[in-house]
UniProtKB/TrEMBL annotation:
Keywords: Cell wall biogenesis/degradation, Dipeptidase, Hydrolase, Metal-binding, Metalloprotease, Protease, Zinc
Active site: 189 (proton donor/acceptor)
Keyword Disulfide bond assigned: no
Protein name, entry field: D-alanyl-D-alanine dipeptidase
Taxonomic source organism: Cyclobacterium plantarum
Amino acid sequence: MAALDTGKLEKRLIDAGLVNIQELLPEVKVALKYSTEDNFFGKDVYGELSRCYMQPEVGEMLKNAYRELKSRHPDLTFLVYDAVRPQSVQQILWDELDKPDSIKPLYVADPQKGSLHNFGVAVDLTLAYAGSGEPLDMGTGYDFFGYAAYPDREEEMLASGKISEEQVANRKILREVMLAAGFSGIGSEWWHFNAYSRKVAGEKFDIVK
Ligand SMILES: C[C@@H](N)C(=O)N[C@H](C)C(=O)O
Ligand SMILES: [Zn+2]
């Protein structure tokens, strides 16, 4: 695996016009999972990078989602796990994902086509208590790649007891505030939200290599 020069990476993100979400929204919590070994492949691929960057207009959308969240649940905040992700890291995630090629794109977008994370227009996040920073129970952890994490299968997962009413209610809070701000979700991951379609992202922005 080619090592990523993370000092240079942060400079590249800034030079590309991306913004540090905590500069726009200091109340939001960030824990970049790919900058730790606590992720689905057990390797730190971001090194020293600890700040989370995204396109400025996506940051503004997230601010609106946050405003909506606070109006409904003043005790909660966002905990962001990932936003912009270089295509080289997308390739590592793709190579590390232990699933048949036919279903891999449900969980990790094909790096050759480009993930919306590679354009800085996708955000992976959960809800946390603003005071303690403790994440809410969503029924699965981040990057759990299976039906229990599928928004598309919540009714079935509820009926079979794989997830609880409370966990679904927590996901709904997240989903509702993100959708209210113009994001869209995907069927296989409760934590992933896109600001734009792949077509629009490709027209507006460059991929971060
Ligand atoms: C890997 C996961 N956190 C994720 O972001 N998946 C989507 C589908 C992606 O890679 O774009
Ligand atoms: Zn994602």
